[in-house]
Amino acid sequence: MRAGRRWRFVSAVIVASTSILACGGNPPDKEIQQAQTAVDAARATGAERYAKDDFSASTDALKNAHAAVEARDYRLALNYALEARDRAEAAARDAADRKATARSNADRALRNAALALVDIRAKLKSAQATQKPLRVLNAARSAAADGENHVQEARAAFEREDYPKVLEILAAPAARLRESIRDLDGSNASQTKRSR
C-alpha cells in the first residue's frame, strides 16, 4: 500500500506542477502593454479607416489577452498579446501606405478640379465674346460656380486629412465641369463651321 500512496502523491505533484506550468506563472503585463502601445500607434496613423481588418483583429486580440489574464490563462494571454502587437504593427504600416496613396489621389483630384475651373473661366470669356448660345453659357457658368463651391469644400476636407471625402465631393462637379468644357468647345467648333 505504501507504493500506491507514493504513486498517488507523485501523480498529484505532476498534475499540480503541470497546471502551474500551463498557467505560465505570471501574467504577460509587458507584452500586453507593448500590444496596447502598438494599437494606439496604429490608431494614430489612421488604421481605423485605412487598415480596418488588421486594426480590428489587433483590438480583438488585445481584448482576448485581457480576458485570458482574468481567466488566469497566462500562456493564452501571451499568445493574444503577441498577436495583437503584430497585427497592430501591420495595420500601422498598411494604414500609412494607404493614407499616402489616398492623399496623393485627393491632391491630384483637387489640382485637376482647379485646372478645370481655370479652363472653364477662360473658355467662358472667349465664348461670351463670340456670342455663344445662352443655354451653353448658362450651363457653363452654373458648373463653374458649383465647381468653385465644391473645390472649397474639398480643400477643407483635405486639410482635415479626410482624403476619401475629397474624392467624393469632387466626383460629380468635376464631371459636370468637363461636360461644360466640351459643350463650350463643341459650340466653338459649330460656330467656326458656320462662319466659313
CATH topology value of the largest domain: Butyryl-CoA Dehydrogenase, subunit A, domain 3
Share of helical residues:
over 70%
Profile the largest sheet: none
Order of helices and strands: HHHHHHH
Morphology call: rod-shaped
Q: Separation of termini?
A: 124 Å
Rg for CA atoms: 32 Å
Low-confidence stretches: 15-23, 191-196
SS element count, helices? 7
Query: How large a portion of the residues is in β-strands, by DSSP E?
Result: under 5%
State the CATH architecture of the largest domain: Up-down Bundle
Question: Please, could you describe this protein's structure?
Answer:
Helix 2 packs antiparallel against helix 4, helix 2 runs parallel beside helix 5 (74-129) and helix 5 packs antiparallel against helix 6. The longest helix has 56 residues, at 74-129. The chain has two domains: 24-97; 99-195, Butyryl-CoA Dehydrogenase, subunit A, domain 3 (Up-down Bundle), CATH 1.20.140. The chain is rod-shaped and about 90 Å long. The protein is built from seven helices and no strands. It is an all-alpha fold. The model is unreliable at 15-23 and 191-196 (pLDDT under 50).
